[in-house]
Protein 1
Amino acid sequence: MAESVDNRVDKPNESPETREQNRRLSVRLAVVAAAMFGFGFALVPLYDQICVALGINSVERPSQVVNTQVDRSRTVTIEFDSNAHNIGWRFEPLVNHLDVHPGELATVEYEVVNVTDKPVTGQAIPSYGPPSAGEYFHKLECFCFSQQTLQPGERRRMPVTFVVDARLPKGVSSIALSYTFFQVAGREGSG
Amino acid sequence: MSSIVDTHPVGHAHDDHGHHGKYSGLMRWVTTTNHKDIGSMYLWFSFIMFLVGGTMALVIRAELFQPGLQVVDPDFFNQMTTMHGLIMVFGAIMPAFVGFANWLIPMQIGAPDMAFARLNNWSFWLLPFAASLLILSFFMPGGAPGVGWTMYAPLTVQQGIGMDLTIFGIHILGMSSILGSINIITTILNMRAPGMTLMKMPLFCWTWLITAYLLVATMPVLAGAVTMTLTDRHFGTSFFNAAGGGDPVLYQHIFWFFGHPEVYIIALPAFGVVSQVIPAFSRKPLFGYASMVYAVAAIAILSFIVWAHHMYTVGMPVTGQLFFMYATTLIAVPTGVKVFNWVATMWKGSLTFETPMLFAIGFLFLFTLGGFTGLVLSLVPVDIQLHDTYYVVAHFHYVMVAGALFSAFAGIYFWLPKWTGRMYDERLGKLHFWLTLIFFNLIFFVQHFLGLAGMPRRIPDYPLMFETWNKVSTIGAFGFGLSQLLFLYIVLKALKSGEKAPQLPWEGADSLEWTHLPTPAPYHSFETPPVVK
């Protein structure tokens, strides 16, 4: 108890039992704090699982198409857009737009060229205009499902196979599909 | 820090250095383990930060005085909105209530000091370093972060080195809060005087007990969120980076898991202060004490399941929106219990209206108004329209400023005689209240109109149609800021030449620090625990 003299200036009558209780409670609370720090990180996989379970945020995952009934009475114009963000790639669709019927299977190709002198890994992220059209746009095959690594000067043609859901709201007559290629941080290539 | 030493109340009130440990001068404050010294340091620190953050608010309002860009460039404007929020929340309001906790909890439960006196010293002295990191970020290349106090990804990835300093500052602030909370919980649970059962504690201690649990549960989550931001920035992880398989919306979920309980971390101690002040000036015991305790606990539990009402617009499913909407509106029930209990406490009381009571009643009116706009914002269809407009700014300033700050003023005027042995100037105190009340509404009431008309927040420029109310708001802001210098003058005047306080300056006050201790409170109190009947 000799080392605790300073504390006892303020609390002369504190019993050893109280000190022991205080120590035990504080350790427990510190464990709770450490566990909550871990909980913050546990939210990452939890969030992912909730998104998969509820079908939210599924733009980067292949869709399961159940109903393949083609609705020939409607035509939807799909406009294709491409962006390369700080990655040193040239990236563009081979066609700018395509008219499809809801329920009809269609394939388009994008071309990407690594114009830098280093190998670069990139990931394409799709987005839709209007954003609510995303859930009716089913991609069966897409280069955006995985990361792409291109050697210096390499040129690659990459397909997207998709079906527009027949349940697409009547008011939507065109959908813009836009891909942005981002460099995957921490991989080879310049930052 | 020298201003803390020069103006400290106890240092003037009695010069018996034998009681202050073996050091004097600055080292006394650096090494002190006395809860009253540390409480005073917390309060002075928070007041300094309040002036710093307030100055930033004035830069924002000056720029918004008229449309177009006149005073600062947009980048600096963003830095101002960001740092104003961070400094007010973490540097001003939270430390102010920790200051109250340090001063009052040991005296109100009959304990000689906090459970871990040296840890308490460390909790405080972490703060100046954290604040220095935040301020230093302005002098880094690229300046301070301009991402908003919520620090949303992916914007945080694009900031300069100032962002890293801010992240470390938040780590340190969080550490200070967690240590302080562990100390408060341990003190309240283990150090109460014989006979002081939990349900006999003043409500202020109850609100702090529950607040401290909220802090232990949520500050580490914020620390995790900013750590992920840090590793995304420098170590190649992709928590919030879509290109690497992460998701920026994930950041919002983690942040608001901390962020909504944080709102109650700020509000609950304010409820506690008001629950001491209103009964004292009504000369009646607090109405519905037990229901007040349960309401505080209910608010704390509900605060963990409402976070996504801050992010209705991220594209969550309708079921999610409905869940968070119903949970949020449910919080109005325990909050309503508290408001009605305060009103019932005043009902048929013999009321007097000294400055602390004026601030408490001001709190009651304006906080309730902020609660109502909160209910409006909790409704999904309305919120989608009002998201990120000045309506939201008006709403949270009604609960943060008219809620927490008014309550802190009420508490300082109420306990100043107990702390220092001197009375403040009642006439000037009332003047301070009325100026604060009028200018506060001038700033923020009109922002409801701006928000409803569609003016977005955090933008340095606006269309001409918003000019009138922005001018009014800016005039109010400068009036409000100057009124707070009057507050500083009132406190300094009380310390220097205030009338000697009577033993019981407020006849209705009945907690232990008033009934069992002399005025001013001695440097060491309750070395022998009182017996509570």
Protein 2
Amino acid sequence: MTFQELIFHLERFWSDRGCLIQQPYDLEVGAGTLNPATLLRALGPEPWAVAYVEPSRRPTDGRYGENPNRLGHYYQYQVLIKPSPMDIQEMYLDSLRALGVDPLDHDIRFVEDDWENPAVGASGLGWEVWLDGMEVTQFTYFQQTGSIRVDPVSVELTYGLERIAMYLQEKESVYDLDWNGRISYGDVHRKGEYEFSTYHFETADVDMLLRMFEMYERESRASCEKGLVLPGYDYCLKCSHVFNILEARGAISVSERTKYIERIRNLARYACKNYVAQREEMGFPLLERFQERKA
Amino acid sequence: MAELLLEIGTEEIPSGYIMDGLRSLKEITEARLTEARLSFGQGLETYGTPRRLVLIGRDVASRQPDAVEEVTGPPVKAAYDDQGNPTRAAEGFARKQGVSIQDLGKIDTPRGPYVFVRKEIPGLPAGEVLARIFPEVVRDIPWPKSMRWGGVGFLFVRPIHWIIAVLDGETIPFEVAGVQSGNQSRGHRFMAPDPFTVAGLDDYLEKAAKARVMVDPREREAEVSRIVRDAAVRVGGEVVLDPDLLSTVANLVEYPTAVCGGFDPDFLALPDPVLITPMAEHQRYFAVRNAEGRLMPHFVAVNNTLARDDKVVQKGHERVLRARLSDAAFFFKEDRKRPLSEKLEDLKAVIYQAELGTSFEKVERFVSIAESLATEVAPDRLDHVRLACRLAKCDLVTEMVSEFASLQGIMGEAYALLDGHPEEVAMAIREHYMPVRSGSDLPETATGAIVGIADRLDTIAGCFAIGQEPSGAADPFALRRHALAILRILEHRAWKVSLKALVEQALKGISEKAAFDREAMEDRIMAFFKDRFRNRLVQEGRLPGAVDAVLTARFDRIPELRPGIEGLERFVQSSSDVESLALTFKRVRNILKDQGPSPDVDPGLFQDKSERDLWEAFTAMEGDVLRELDDGNDYEALTRMAALRRPVDDFFEGVEVLTKEDPRLRQNRVGVLQRVSGLFMRVADFSRLAV
């Protein structure tokens, strides 16, 4: 199964189960969770079901294209269903079956992992799903996002696409992954891994980034104050990414780190609070749309 | 008597929570049953897997015993009128008690006759009682972290999917978190997922086993132990059976099966901890050693499914481990490009604490504390101590420790040995973190002990100086643990150094970074240490009065304290005189409270016989007492000193100490008392023994 076939399979699988198939967000994000289709939609009483690929940038994980397992940029497959269905574990296992992974041929385990992203005030309880010892999915029941308790609870599945592909294709290096039968993962991304590692660790302009953080923070607040939720949240995401680069660059000390994360978290909370208020004002329009979906 | 079975079926519970959860399930249910007067024989039993919490009672009463309730009502005078007819008061009481007026009786009390009713309450069937109790029990099990799911408001450790509640084959009907109780369980998630009906206990245990679920955690642990041993033996080795890993792994599966895999023998060039940490901590694999104790290029994984072809699973595990070991090997190679000592410079770029500077500066500070300590207690180790200090924090900036934080100290030791440093220096790098937990092992090497004390003193002094001392439950920098570690090490090594002097030195180093009142801070830190020591001793069962008396007088050289307290305890228990001695001493201390120092005592100024007698008694015994104290014979010293009580009492009778007559006489008398008090204070503050 090529890399793109893997994605097609997952898209088809979750589409068949009622998920809205969205496209990745058009801003730099560290995880599919930060996409407003997850972080904001998890809030409030309106049901929601979405699935999408999310290219995720993690500057500190860059390895110049030399480590066969670790990337500064990789693809997550993100699923969010709200409220979490009782049979979600079984659904997830069916998705693995759809990829040709039969649980009776392998050792699949739900190993505890309570995930959290303090920068956006999000946390949940759940597991890493292990396939013969390798973590392939983060499986989380959100308990809060934007520092606001969620009700009903959403379940989030985040598949590590490269890992699953390497397992299915029996490749030792991510760069050897067959993307479409003719082009490899390395053909597409190796140069980028090298360049972005260089940029994030060595050449990024720290002063500029620090100034950008301040500007983005101001603009996020200003937008939220003017009642614009999505632009306000966008600038929160921009702050988060700039912070990630500053960290990779070594420009943030241990004590400063906590303060920056708090600032980003406050922006997220502001946007999230406004989102919930906005939906309420709108009368929670999606409440009726999902009558057939049972908890 | 009836058989009870409760099974709460859930999504995978974190392995570390299961045993405590089962214990709570048992305790809470037993308490509720006792409250409801339902007996349960010898006690309830529990079983559990990651997907189910099971409670079993083999001998539960089938119904509550009948009860008799006696209730006293209003006085007869108020309940019946002159004609003997019942009043509103009687009617109200009868109504409230749910009985008719005819059922009311009378009882004589010291305050006269009162209305009285005796009710017979038939016991309820156990099923009814349990139907009420069980939802409460499930709700009340405490978990380190609980969650909600879907639209269900219930908080539990993980989503609940099914509940079995059966009493002698009959379902006990109740609902929790939207789940109705019944008599159906489910088997192994993959190997036997179909539901199965349960008629009773034995039926349940038999069917669960058939459905590939080992419900008994003890049996499962024994099984894991057996299969990993066998797997290791098959490759010619012996499994390294880490007990923590064993219990974790046993609670990660419902049906344990072992798979043995291998890795490239080239990886064995890495130090053992570098191999074992990724294997055990991340992957939960067991390591394998050969007959000589060397690690073999094998590992044992414990899986939950008996796969059709275990080679597939084995290959999967091997791939993951290969990736992790390659990372570790890469970090190791990077780290080995420079000797460990060169990393000291890198510590200049690491902020230890915003107000206290870099880690490099911290090392500079504690190296001088370590040097002072070593000079006093282990002068032959001075060079080792200096070197160990300089190397102790270097591994914090290695790739390996940045990736695997739990390897701090361990990597330092490994790298130091590879660089050719003396073994004791390398060991000290690892040991300076010991004891790593309250109650765990102390450093074996003097060097490790010294570096550990010095580092911790700097940490405590620094945090106090910037206003970060512990308060109530908040101790984010673990200062209490550090203080206890220092006290334990000093006692264990019998190092009679002055703790005060060491604290003073630590504060001197910090004073270059922060502004504070050195003397006041020294007092606070000493008080902090004293509290820790006091708490420990009182916890161990020592007499609080004796502990306080000794610690108040002489908290400085730690190894002297315990013998002092023991001696004082012995003295207190054997002497009939303790009360009066304490009172006398209190009197002495009170008089001396506001007195400054006095010149040497001049016997020529004595006017009364009591002054001369006291002085003679004192000077005669002083030398002996000091000698006894030097030899650690606190009890003997105390017995001698106790003989001064009468002369002191006579002294107070005979003269006016604070005489306004003549300042020289006053000074002289104060001087005598100061000498006497000084001697006593070498042992204890006796005023603390007064009731």
